[in-house]
Amino acid sequence: MTERILPGRPANGRLKVTTGASSDRGHKPVNQDFHGGLVPRGHTLTMKGVAFAIADGIGSSDVSQEASETAVKSFLSDYYCTPDAWSVRHSGERVISAINAWLWDQTRKSPYRDSPDRGYACTFSAVVLKATIAHLFHIGDTRIYRIRVR
Questions:
Q1: What percentage of the chain's residues is helix, strand, coil (to nearest 5)?
Q2: Which whole-number Å values give the CA distances from 14 to 8, 10, 79, 123, in the listed order?
Q3: Alpha-carbon distance 59 to 143, whole Å?
Q4: Nearest 10 degrees: CA dihedral of 56, 60, 65, 66?
């Protein structure tokens, strides 16, 4: 077996992750953005990797800040509760599908049921770093950038 050290990856085989985050409400009275990340330890780090997520509420909704916070917190919590035997892709898709169903149900039970664009809606992006692979999940127009220092 030949070990391949990827550029930017330390020779000891451990991925080094540096994070930072910032958000601005823009012209809106309420900041509808929410972001978070989780760097687990031990077995969970090995089996599930490191996860980061960001969500942005839609401007036409008065409750989308709750949707964006729920989406991020739920993803970061529920992803790590999926079976180790599931792939990152399968885990992420199942968790996002469940979050979407919950948000849709909240809208359906709310005064906004006849106007989904005013309900519990948000854009969402997540990245899971496992081993040397970045797994990306996108819904809507949020973005994930890879920035390389040369």
A1: 35, 20, 45
A2: 10, 6, 22, 32
A3: 17
A4: -120
> Which structure tokens are listed for 106?
């909240």
Question: pLDDT tens across 31-42, in order?
Answer: 889 999 999 999
Extended beta strands in the chain, E state: 33-38, 50-57, 122-130, 133-139
Higher-confidence residue of 144 and 16: namely 144
What is d(CA 65, CA 121) in angstroms, rounded to the nearest whole number?
9
**CATH fold label, 34-139:** Phosphatase 2c; domain 1 (3.60.40)
Q: Structure pTM?
A: 0.85
Give domain limits for the chain: 34-139
* DSSP one-letter code for 89: H
* Residues in CB range of 132: below 8 A, 6 or more apart: 6, 9, 15
8 A C-beta contact, residue 135 and residue 75: no
Strand (E) or helix (H) holding 95? helix 88-108
